[in-house]
Amino acid sequence: MTLLLDFLTAIGRAVIAVCRGAGSLTIFALEGLSHLVRPPFYGRLFGRALLEIGFFSLPVVALTAVFTGMVLALQSYTGFARFSAQGAVASLVVLSVTRELGPVLAGLMVAGRIGAATAAELGTMRVTDQIDALSTLSTNPMKYLVAPRLLAGIVALPLLVVVADMLGVMGGYIVSTLKLGFNADTYVTNTVNFVQMNDVGSGLAKAAVFGFLISLMGCYQGYNSKGGAQGVGSATTLAVVTASILILAFDYVLTEMFFAR
């Protein structure tokens, strides 16, 4: 009986901890978003965050997209060849990249880079009392540190996904035409005929949500970190892990919303 009670107590504590964390994160997100519509707005900080998230993440996102398109073309050709359906390679590549692989892989790459950097920066500011110093100087830390990063994530990731979509399709085109023997004009025609604005638009909508989640988790974990250097390290790890999990979870939710019939 005692073991059963201990087990139920542990489960209850875990559920309460999860609910408390979800509530705290929701309040943090709403407060950060509210500062986007209330002056003042720190345009310089937004520009800096946009440059950091967007431009400096471009190389890793571009390389990931190109090789993903290449591998996808090879794998789909191998599978379709069993059913004499090699002509569907172009449509599979463009739909897979624009709907799923472009936004998801770009989000995961940016989460590993920006989520960790944001959590480390804000976590260091927290443990060295720099955030408290901002409040002492009559500067709202949420408005100064969090809001510009949230907006930059929402704006930057869709721009990265546009590049990732083009490079992913180009990677599939290169492999299909140079290695698999596809006619270049036919491949381009099939690509253009099968892709629709809804496919591209759904991917960009996902990217905006993923960018918000990445910035949110980086800011939240760093802003609430404690315990010195070890706490900053834990916050950095949690930011990347939780952002990656949320990206995959919200990818399913958004796919269900956009394409479920």
Compile the SSE list and pairings.
Elements (H helix, E strand, L loop, with lengths): L1 H33 L8 H13 L2 H23 L8 H39 L2 H7 L4 H38 L5 H11 L2 H27 L4 H32 L2
Helix pairs in contact: 1-6, 2-6, 3-4, 3-6, 4-6, 4-7, 4-8, 4-9, 6-8, 8-9
Tell me the Rg in angstroms.
22 Å
Number of domains: 1
Distance between the termini: 49 Å
Please count the beta strands (DSSP E, at least 2 residues each). 0
Give the helix proportion (percent range): over 70%
| Discrete helix count | 9
Largest sheet: none
Mean pLDDT: 88
Q: Can you describe this structure?
A:
The protein contains nine helices and no strands. The protein is an all-alpha fold and 261 residues long. The chain has one domain (41-259). The chain starts with a helix and ends with a helix.
Give a short synopsis of this structure.
The protein is mainly alpha-helical. The protein has helices at residues 2-34, 43-55, 58-80, 89-127, 130-136, 141-178, 184-194, 197-223, 228-259.
Task: List its salient traits.
globular; 85% helix; 9 helices; mainly alpha; 261 residues
